[in-house]
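I am writing to request your help with a piece of structural work I have in hand. The matter concerns a single protein, recorded as an amino acid sequence and a row of backbone structure tokens. Could you please explain, in whatever detail you think fit, how the structure tokens follow from the sequence? Thank you for your consideration; the sequence and its tokens are set out here:
>
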Amino acid sequence: MSSNSHRNQDDVLKSSDSTAWFRSYLHGGTSSLISTMTTIITFPLYKTVFRQQLHSTLVREAVAQLFKEGPVKLYRGVAPPLLMRSLNGTLLFGLQDTFLHQLPLFSTTPLPRNALPALAGFGAGVVEALLFTPFERVQNVLQNSRNDSRLPTLRSILLKLASRPLASGYYTAFLPILVRNALGSSLYFGLKGPMSNTLRDNGCSPVAASFMAGVLNSVVISLPLYPLSVLVANMQAQAEGGERGVRSSWRRLWAARQHRLSLLYRGGFLVILRSCVTWGITTAIYDQLERHSR
């Protein structure tokens, strides 16, 4: 009787664990799906920044380029980030929660409790880079107006990239994306809890604290990692020529920016502003769903 009781308790615990993990995937996907509305609204802003990253132009010059191309082409390339954003939240929050529960079981030495969210976030960022680099590659080729005549449709771009080796096709710039995503996710999950708790202790409501934690987190992450995004955009924008390595691509980019950080960070303010809004909303919705489920 006692053994059956213990077995039933174990089954209940396993069931509750799996339910909790499924909930984190569901809540991550829901929060990201809702925040994709900001992706649609701010996509022209994102495209303006992309032109600045690629051509080192001023805001007014990038806007003039987009205005000249017309409204039909303004949203060319919006499909990959929409799809990526929805899937990204599902996997990022879900995988981080899964790793968070599994890390202590596979570690031979006790891991610091405060470091677990950051370590789990690092692992989630690695998986994210593996899965979503092709999406980012297609998006950057689509957004580069110089590809419009040779590769006018999404299908033509997919076929072109599929005809090339992975390293110069779909997985061009994988290494900088891996570093950016792994570090970014590690910082996000490592800082989110402490920031939110500090804000609540200072009188913020739970929703406001989560939103501000997402905003502040975004600033902390975006500022140092922005040059990697510029490097990725320049490496991935051409459908051909992806054979150039990270080091040579960086040297070429740094020379094109006249060895000046101010030119390298051109468009950075707009990216950080967009990221703050998106991650503030995503964090607030996710944390609210988690609170209600508990």
